[in-house]
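Issue 218. Parser rejects a valid record. Input:
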Amino acid sequence: MAYDISKVHIINNTLVNKVVLEERDGKSVAVGINTSDDKEFRARKEIIVSCGAFKTPQILMLSGIGDSEQLSSIGIEKLNLHDHPSTILYWKLKHPENGLAIGSPHFPKRKVGPAEWVFTGSVPEEELAAVRQNDNTATEPRDATRRANYEITIGYGPFGVPPNMKVPIDGSIISTGTVCFLPTSRGSIKVTSTNPADDPAIDPNYLSTEHDWAVLRCALRQAMKVMNTSTAKEQVECQFQPEGFDIGLDSIDEELNARIKPYSSTWYHPGGTAAIGTVVDSECRVRGVQCLRVVDASILPKPLGAHYQAPIYAIAEQASDMIAAAHS
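Output the parser choked on:
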């Protein structure tokens, strides 16, 4: 669907200090924004904040929107940050001269993208039942369709290499990304300054529940099973591993945990920091403030078992219909 953007005006290199609020008939109303160059832009109808799961809560808190005790001093936090943690394995190719990986001069000639989806899967229920006893946070409910709680992808190159590991980018290495969907760990965003140019302190609090460890262990085992099939072995010589952290199909939980802890990162799917039900209502309107909405991944109350691009497109489409209907 095409949209008429002839009336859209984009201001570059401009930072928003805060949303300007006014009291009208005893109610807080968003009337505009104040920018870093001390300009004020007034809204005729609404303010829509779409700055992402990190910056959206920062703007809201700097605007004075939140718990009064938290806002009484700098050091306020926004909880419920969720993200998809991941652990990537690397594999040495038998024939790098075939141009299967980035770094090879022959790779650009292959008509494939840099990565492909392999599958999504579910951790066996008996494994999750065992870890529930150690967690105060309940796992996500799953119906008869068994929601997927991990994903495995193939990357045609050494993607996501952590800083404590060296992997050659010469066309000899491919990777398997394992991602924990539906994590139960929750982090926080803390505003450390009244200056919006200062990044907030982000504590993702990854792997703070036994559930998330169990999901990544299961995903790693499945990835190694895939790469040890006869079909994969036609192309793959062996796993390229960091010294002292070798894992394989016979590895026990403790050995997998030892690999996961220093060699995991994010899949860059943060959300939840201005969630529906707590910060915004079902039409993305900020609770307690009129004429102010949030439309981005911040509003997701719980993590999704999917990549976020398509769901956020859907949220934007739905929100645009709501906004249009409100002013029709």
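Fixed in the parser; the record now loads. Residues 69-75 have pLDDT under 50 and may be disordered.
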